[in-house]
Specification:
Number of helices: 10
CATH superfamily of the largest domain: Tetratricopeptide repeat domain
Oligomer: single chain
Number of strands: 0
Order of helices and strands: HHHHHHHHHH
CATH class of the largest domain: Mainly Alpha
Length: 226
């Protein structure tokens, strides 16, 4: 501010906003991220503007998750405050998405799609969530980003469960399992086995459910995860 560096002030405000978000001070975080957005728009800095929109979305997303954890509800059954917070997150992600499309930034589009999928899932809009996660998946494959691909499969599995499409969920969870083994991530592998166990229980294929729950158990024991 002293040297009149507006872009520098915008970036510093954004960093403050992100730090306050991590500290759980969501309302102060929004104020700082909004300053980042205002200055970026004033300076015609499209990249800064896109980043600020994404960061504000993240603050509302984190606040919504924080509020819903305290209430431990199923996706879709949300108190008004949580719903409004997640809708705000979604709006900012949408604005970010249209801007990064304009800028031709595919990686940023992937991030926006993933977060839109997650907010729509929490809001109980499972079909919308699936559409966004499929976009996320396509971009992850484009970039050869195996970790993002794995997350997309997992999220697609979760959303199909709530639509009662257990067979489709099982296919997505199997892909999650396959990738978690490729990535040598045992905790995620255990999680995928757990999801498959539950899905096969819902499909009333109990033999297979037992098989996956046993795999989950073995990994949990190996990791010493009580």
């Amino acid at each position: 501010r002293t040297i009149g560096d507006r872009i520098g002030e915008a970036k510093a405000s954004g960093n403050l906003g992100n730090t306050l978000k991590i500290l759980g001070q969501f309302d102060e975080a929004v104020v700082c991220c909004q300053r980042h957005l205002d200055i970026s728009q004033e300076q015609g800095d499209k990249i800064g503007e896109a980043r600020a929109l994404y960061n504000i979305g993240n603050v509302y997303h984190a606040k919504g998750k924080h509020l819903s954890w305290n209430m431990a509800q199923d996706p879709g059954y949300l108190p008004q405050e949580v719903k409004e917070t997640l809708q705000k997150a979604s709006e900012y992600y949408e604005r970010n998405l249209s801007l990064v499309k304009e800028l031709g930034d595919r990686a940023a589009q992937g991030r926006a799609y993933g977060n839109l999928g997650n907010t729509q899932y929490l809001l109980g809009n499972f079909s919308e969530a699936i559409a966004f996660h499929k976009e996320r998946l396509a971009i992850a494959k484009e970039f050869g980003d195996k970790a993002a691909e794995r997350r997309a499969y997992s999220n697609l599995g979760n959303a199909h469960i709530f639509l009662g499409r257990f067979d489709i969920s099982a296919e997505y969870y199997k892909k999650t399992l396959q990738l978690s083994r490729q990535l040598k991530d045992q905790a995620v592998e255990a999680q995928a086995c757990y999801s498959l166990g539950n899905t096969y229980t819902l499909l009333q294929d109990y033999e297979r459910a037992i098989e996956y729950h046993l795999k989950h158990l073995v990994i949990a024991q190996e990791l010493g995860d009580r």
